[in-house]
Amino acid sequence: MKQLTPSQLSDILTKHRKWLIKEVGGERADLSGANLSDANLVEANLSYVDLVDANLRFADLTKADLRGAILIKADLYEANLNDILRL
Hints:
This protein is mainly alpha-helical and 87 residues long.
């Protein structure tokens, strides 16, 4: 399982935001197999992010945008999903 530092995750999500608006330097986020347990993803734009097999246990996804996200086999045990933008 990929372990990401908060700084690495922030960089990935910054590039992803650029990709969503077709800005130079953008790149679609691939967080498949990432260990994101306990991650603070409040209001994160995770639309169209690949989260296959990602560990999101106890992650805070409050108000996160998960539209179009690929969540196959993602572990969302005890994740906070309050007010998410749904698929």
